[in-house]
Amino acid sequence: MNYPQGNGQAEATNKAIFSNIKKNLQEAKGKWLEELSTIVWAHRTTERRSTGITPFAMVYGSEAVIPTLLSEVVRDAPLNERQLSHNTDLLEETRNMALVHLPSYNQQARSFYAKKVSV
User: Fold this and answer.
1) Phi and psi dihedrals of 70, rounded to 5?
2) Alpha-carbon distance 91 to 93, whole Å?
3) What whole-number distance in Å separates Cα of residue 28 and Cα of residue 1?
4) pTM for the full model?
5) Which InterPro entries match (predicted)?
6) CA–CA dist 57, 87 (Å, integer)
7) Whole-angstrom Cα distance, residue 61 to residue 54?
8) Is the Cα torsion angle 61, 62, 64, 70 positive or negative in sign?
9) What DSSP state is assigned to residue 90?
10) pLDDT digits over 32-75, tens only?
């Protein structure tokens, strides 16, 4: 199945990543590969105006946690199962919140575009 809007979304993501690479590499020429993972991580963990949440949260149902912020590991299998179930429920809720947010964003984008186009 062809999804033309997906091409535009991928292009927008690539454009943002390339823009950040250019900004970060003004002084460190030729080190784009070392910077790429940091830039992609920043892109995935930055809230989007269109959805009101991060791409990471859209995929995983919760915000990213930096490993150094984790204080202890829980090795309680039943507790982990309950938390996984709860997080799965939150994922669906997070995606639904993004869907609710989209019409408002689309209206704002239409209004912005109409102002730019009308002379």
Assistant:
1) -75, 125
2) 5
3) 42
4) 0.50
5) RNaseH-like_sf, RNaseH_sf
6) 11
7) 10
8) negative
9) H
10) 777 778 878 888 888 888 888 888 888 888 788 777 655 666 67
